[in-house]
Amino acid sequence: MTDLHIGLIGVVAGICTTISFVPQIIKMFRTKNVRDISLIMYVILTTGIFLWLVYGIFIEEFPIIFANLVGFLLCLSVIVMKIKYRKRF
Q1: Domains of the chain
Q2: Are 47 and 31 in contact (CB under 8 A)?
């Protein structure tokens, strides 16, 4: 495999894992229902994604940096909504 193919795999993997959060975020935003979302799970996941972001910055790998930056922001939005909407239901 060439470096281009390997980089493309990284970019596609990053896009897939990153956009996987979007349907949940849209649902939470529309319904304001966060009862079944685990805050602890998202705090741990967000911490892990942040560490992957830092790792990507250290090794200067754009696919890792980009995917984890977007993933971090999306996970953080889930945490914010969980805290903001938790007393509604």
Answers
A1: 3-85 (1.20.1280.290)
A2: no
